[in-house]
Amino acid sequence: MLNSEITGKKLQGQCFRIVSAESPVKLYCCYVLIAVLSIAVIALSVALSLPTRRQEQTSIKNIPANCLRNWIGFGSKCFYFSENTSNWTFSQNFCMELEAHLARFDSDEELEFLNRYKGTFDYWIGLHRESPEHPWMWTDNTEYYGPVLIGGVEEYAYLNNNGISSARVYADRRWICSKPSSYALQCQIPLLSF
Ligand SMILES: *[C@@H]1O[C@H](CO)[C@@H](O)[C@H](O)[C@H]1NC(C)=O
Ligand SMILES: *[C@@H]1O[C@H](CO)[C@@H](O)[C@H](O)[C@H]1NC(C)=O
Protein backbone atom coordinates (compact mmCIF):
# COMPACT_ATOMS: atom_id res chain seq x y z
CA MET A 1 0.00 0.00 0.00
CA LEU A 2 2.72 2.46 1.01
CA ASN A 3 4.64 1.79 -2.17
CA SER A 4 1.62 2.42 -4.34
CA GLU A 5 0.89 5.64 -2.45
CA ILE A 6 4.38 6.89 -3.06
CA THR A 7 4.13 5.91 -6.71
CA GLY A 8 0.78 7.67 -6.81
CA LYS A 9 2.27 10.89 -5.46
CA LYS A 10 5.11 10.74 -7.99
CA LEU A 11 2.61 10.23 -10.78
CA GLN A 12 0.50 13.11 -9.50
CA GLY A 13 3.57 15.30 -9.54
CA GLN A 14 4.24 14.30 -13.10
CA CYS A 15 0.61 14.93 -13.95
CA PHE A 16 0.74 18.50 -12.63
CA ARG A 17 3.77 19.16 -14.68
CA ILE A 18 2.01 17.68 -17.68
CA VAL A 19 -1.15 19.70 -17.05
CA SER A 20 0.81 22.90 -16.74
CA ALA A 21 2.27 22.14 -20.16
CA GLU A 22 -1.35 22.48 -21.37
CA SER A 23 -0.93 19.99 -24.18
CA PRO A 24 -4.15 17.98 -24.88
CA VAL A 25 -2.11 14.84 -25.62
CA LYS A 26 -0.31 15.10 -22.28
CA LEU A 27 -3.59 15.81 -20.49
CA TYR A 28 -5.00 12.62 -22.01
CA CYS A 29 -1.92 10.77 -20.85
CA CYS A 30 -2.56 12.08 -17.34
CA TYR A 31 -6.14 10.74 -17.35
CA VAL A 32 -4.88 7.36 -18.51
CA LEU A 33 -2.34 7.34 -15.68
CA ILE A 34 -5.03 8.18 -13.12
CA ALA A 35 -7.28 5.45 -14.51
CA VAL A 36 -4.48 2.87 -14.41
CA LEU A 37 -3.61 3.90 -10.88
CA SER A 38 -7.24 3.60 -9.72
CA ILE A 39 -7.56 0.14 -11.27
CA ALA A 40 -4.32 -0.90 -9.55
CA VAL A 41 -5.65 0.30 -6.17
CA ILE A 42 -8.98 -1.51 -6.66
CA ALA A 43 -7.19 -4.70 -7.76
CA LEU A 44 -4.91 -4.46 -4.73
CA SER A 45 -7.78 -4.09 -2.26
CA VAL A 46 -9.66 -6.99 -3.87
CA ALA A 47 -6.51 -9.11 -3.65
CA LEU A 48 -6.07 -8.15 0.01
CA SER A 49 -9.68 -9.01 0.87
CA LEU A 50 -9.59 -12.46 -0.77
CA PRO A 51 -7.63 -14.39 1.89
CA THR A 52 -10.02 -13.05 4.57
CA ARG A 53 -13.02 -14.32 2.66
CA ARG A 54 -11.43 -17.72 2.24
CA GLN A 55 -10.82 -17.87 6.00
CA GLU A 56 -14.47 -17.06 6.69
CA GLN A 57 -15.60 -19.88 4.43
CA THR A 58 -13.34 -22.34 6.20
CA SER A 59 -14.56 -21.34 9.65
CA ILE A 60 -18.21 -21.66 8.54
CA LYS A 61 -17.42 -25.17 7.34
CA ASN A 62 -16.05 -26.02 10.77
CA ILE A 63 -19.29 -25.08 12.53
CA PRO A 64 -21.26 -28.30 12.47
CA ALA A 65 -24.57 -27.11 13.88
CA ASN A 66 -26.70 -24.03 13.40
CA CYS A 67 -29.08 -23.87 16.34
CA LEU A 68 -31.65 -21.41 17.60
CA ARG A 69 -30.94 -19.18 20.56
CA ASN A 70 -31.14 -21.19 23.82
CA TRP A 71 -30.25 -24.38 21.95
CA ILE A 72 -26.81 -25.98 22.01
CA GLY A 73 -25.28 -27.52 18.93
CA PHE A 74 -23.38 -30.78 19.09
CA GLY A 75 -22.46 -32.77 15.98
CA SER A 76 -25.39 -32.50 13.61
CA LYS A 77 -28.00 -31.94 16.35
CA CYS A 78 -29.36 -29.13 18.48
CA PHE A 79 -30.25 -29.71 22.12
CA TYR A 80 -32.47 -27.71 24.44
CA PHE A 81 -32.02 -28.07 28.21
CA SER A 82 -35.13 -26.87 30.04
CA GLU A 83 -35.05 -24.84 33.22
CA ASN A 84 -38.66 -25.59 34.09
CA THR A 85 -39.76 -28.99 35.31
CA SER A 86 -42.78 -31.04 34.30
CA ASN A 87 -43.99 -34.57 33.59
CA TRP A 88 -42.75 -36.67 30.66
CA THR A 89 -45.81 -36.07 28.47
CA PHE A 90 -45.78 -32.31 28.90
CA SER A 91 -42.03 -32.30 28.19
CA GLN A 92 -42.48 -34.29 24.98
CA ASN A 93 -45.30 -31.94 23.87
CA PHE A 94 -43.12 -28.93 24.65
CA CYS A 95 -40.37 -30.34 22.42
CA MET A 96 -42.84 -31.20 19.63
CA GLU A 97 -44.12 -27.65 19.59
CA LEU A 98 -40.55 -26.65 18.75
CA GLU A 99 -40.37 -29.23 15.96
CA ALA A 100 -38.21 -31.45 18.15
CA HIS A 101 -38.75 -34.37 20.49
CA LEU A 102 -37.43 -35.46 23.87
CA ALA A 103 -33.70 -36.02 23.54
CA ARG A 104 -32.33 -38.88 21.56
CA PHE A 105 -28.66 -39.84 21.47
CA ASP A 106 -27.18 -41.92 18.67
CA SER A 107 -23.59 -42.30 19.85
CA ASP A 108 -21.46 -42.52 22.98
CA GLU A 109 -20.23 -39.00 22.17
CA GLU A 110 -23.75 -37.59 22.20
CA LEU A 111 -24.59 -39.30 25.49
CA GLU A 112 -21.33 -38.02 26.97
CA PHE A 113 -22.22 -34.53 25.79
CA LEU A 114 -25.64 -34.73 27.46
CA ASN A 115 -24.10 -35.96 30.70
CA ARG A 116 -21.57 -33.15 30.63
CA TYR A 117 -24.17 -30.42 30.05
CA LYS A 118 -26.87 -31.68 32.39
CA GLY A 119 -24.85 -30.73 35.46
CA THR A 120 -26.37 -32.16 38.62
CA PHE A 121 -30.02 -32.03 37.51
CA ASP A 122 -32.12 -34.97 36.29
CA TYR A 123 -33.63 -34.59 32.81
CA TRP A 124 -36.35 -36.49 30.95
CA ILE A 125 -35.13 -37.98 27.67
CA GLY A 126 -37.05 -39.50 24.78
CA LEU A 127 -37.29 -43.12 25.95
CA HIS A 128 -40.35 -44.93 27.26
CA ARG A 129 -41.81 -48.43 27.33
CA GLU A 130 -45.28 -49.85 27.78
CA SER A 131 -44.28 -51.99 30.75
CA PRO A 132 -41.12 -53.48 32.27
CA GLU A 133 -41.68 -56.49 29.97
CA HIS A 134 -41.58 -54.32 26.85
CA PRO A 135 -38.45 -52.94 25.14
CA TRP A 136 -37.46 -49.30 25.54
CA MET A 137 -38.57 -47.17 22.57
CA TRP A 138 -37.53 -43.79 21.23
CA THR A 139 -40.26 -41.21 20.61
CA ASP A 140 -40.42 -42.21 16.91
CA ASN A 141 -41.25 -45.77 18.08
CA THR A 142 -37.91 -47.27 17.08
CA GLU A 143 -36.37 -49.64 19.59
CA TYR A 144 -33.53 -48.55 21.87
CA TYR A 145 -30.31 -50.55 21.35
CA GLY A 146 -28.11 -48.07 23.22
CA PRO A 147 -24.95 -48.92 25.13
CA VAL A 148 -26.38 -47.94 28.51
CA LEU A 149 -28.72 -50.09 30.61
CA ILE A 150 -31.73 -48.20 31.94
CA GLY A 151 -32.21 -48.65 35.67
CA GLY A 152 -35.45 -48.91 37.63
CA VAL A 153 -38.73 -50.62 36.82
CA GLU A 154 -40.84 -47.70 35.56
CA GLU A 155 -41.87 -46.65 32.06
CA TYR A 156 -40.24 -43.26 31.43
CA ALA A 157 -36.50 -42.66 31.22
CA TYR A 158 -34.46 -39.76 32.58
CA LEU A 159 -30.81 -38.91 32.72
CA ASN A 160 -29.32 -38.78 36.20
CA ASN A 161 -25.85 -38.66 37.70
CA ASN A 162 -25.44 -42.45 37.49
CA GLY A 163 -26.63 -42.89 33.90
CA ILE A 164 -30.22 -43.48 32.84
CA SER A 165 -33.02 -44.40 35.21
CA SER A 166 -36.79 -44.71 34.95
CA ALA A 167 -39.71 -43.06 36.70
CA ARG A 168 -43.47 -42.78 36.42
CA VAL A 169 -44.84 -40.42 33.80
CA TYR A 170 -46.13 -37.80 36.25
CA ALA A 171 -42.86 -37.12 38.09
CA ASP A 172 -41.69 -33.53 37.59
CA ARG A 173 -38.23 -33.14 36.06
CA ARG A 174 -36.35 -30.87 33.74
CA TRP A 175 -36.16 -32.16 30.18
CA ILE A 176 -33.91 -32.14 27.11
CA CYS A 177 -35.23 -31.74 23.56
CA SER A 178 -33.22 -32.63 20.47
CA LYS A 179 -33.59 -32.14 16.74
CA PRO A 180 -31.37 -32.23 13.68
CA SER A 181 -29.63 -28.88 13.25
CA SER A 182 -31.06 -26.64 10.54
CA TYR A 183 -27.53 -26.36 9.20
CA ALA A 184 -27.34 -30.11 8.67
CA LEU A 185 -30.74 -30.02 6.94
CA GLN A 186 -30.46 -26.94 4.76
CA CYS A 187 -26.82 -26.14 4.23
CA GLN A 188 -25.24 -29.43 3.19
CA ILE A 189 -25.82 -28.88 -0.52
CA PRO A 190 -24.46 -25.32 -0.84
CA LEU A 191 -21.48 -26.31 1.33
CA LEU A 192 -20.53 -29.14 -1.00
CA SER A 193 -20.23 -26.71 -3.91
CA PHE A 194 -17.63 -24.48 -2.20
C1 LIG B 1 -41.60 -21.95 32.71
O1 LIG B 1 -42.80 -22.02 33.47
C2 LIG B 1 -43.40 -20.77 33.66
C3 LIG B 1 -44.59 -20.98 34.62
O2 LIG B 1 -45.37 -22.08 34.21
C4 LIG B 1 -43.83 -20.18 32.32
O3 LIG B 1 -44.43 -18.92 32.49
C5 LIG B 1 -42.59 -20.04 31.45
O4 LIG B 1 -42.97 -19.60 30.16
C6 LIG B 1 -41.87 -21.37 31.33
N1 LIG B 1 -40.61 -21.14 30.64
C7 LIG B 1 -40.29 -21.87 29.57
C8 LIG B 1 -38.99 -21.51 28.94
O5 LIG B 1 -40.96 -22.76 29.14
C1 LIG C 1 -48.56 -33.36 32.92
O1 LIG C 1 -48.53 -31.99 33.20
C2 LIG C 1 -49.55 -31.25 32.58
C3 LIG C 1 -49.28 -29.78 32.80
O2 LIG C 1 -48.94 -29.52 34.13
C4 LIG C 1 -50.90 -31.71 33.10
O3 LIG C 1 -51.95 -31.00 32.49
C5 LIG C 1 -51.05 -33.20 32.80
O4 LIG C 1 -52.26 -33.71 33.38
C6 LIG C 1 -49.87 -33.98 33.36
N1 LIG C 1 -49.93 -35.35 32.88
C7 LIG C 1 -49.63 -36.40 33.64
C8 LIG C 1 -49.75 -37.72 33.01
O5 LIG C 1 -49.24 -36.26 34.79
TrEMBL record:
<dbReference type="InterPro" id="IPR001304">
    <property type="entry name" value="C-type_lectin-like"/>
</dbReference>
<keyword id="KW-0812">Transmembrane</keyword>
<keyword id="KW-0735">Signal-anchor</keyword>
<dbReference type="InterPro" id="IPR016186">
    <property type="entry name" value="C-type_lectin-like/link_sf"/>
</dbReference>
<protein>
    <submittedName>
        <fullName>C-type lectin domain family 2 member D11-like</fullName>
    </submittedName>
</protein>
<dbReference type="Pfam" id="PF00059">
    <property type="entry name" value="Lectin_C"/>
</dbReference>
<feature type="domain" description="C-type lectin">
    <location>
        <begin position="74"/>
        <end position="175"/>
    </location>
</feature>
<keyword id="KW-0472">Membrane</keyword>
<dbReference type="InterPro" id="IPR016187">
    <property type="entry name" value="CTDL_fold"/>
</dbReference>
<dbReference type="InterPro" id="IPR033992">
    <property type="entry name" value="NKR-like_CTLD"/>
</dbReference>
<keyword id="KW-1133">Transmembrane helix</keyword>
<keyword id="KW-0430">Lectin</keyword>
<dbReference type="GO" id="GO:0030246">
    <property type="term" value="F:carbohydrate binding"/>
</dbReference>
<dbReference type="GO" id="GO:0009897">
    <property type="term" value="C:external side of plasma membrane"/>
</dbReference>
<dbReference type="InterPro" id="IPR050828">
    <property type="entry name" value="C-type_lectin/matrix_domain"/>
</dbReference>
<dbReference type="GO" id="GO:0046703">
    <property type="term" value="F:natural killer cell lectin-like receptor binding"/>
</dbReference>
<feature type="transmembrane region" description="Helical">
    <location>
        <begin position="27"/>
        <end position="50"/>
    </location>
</feature>
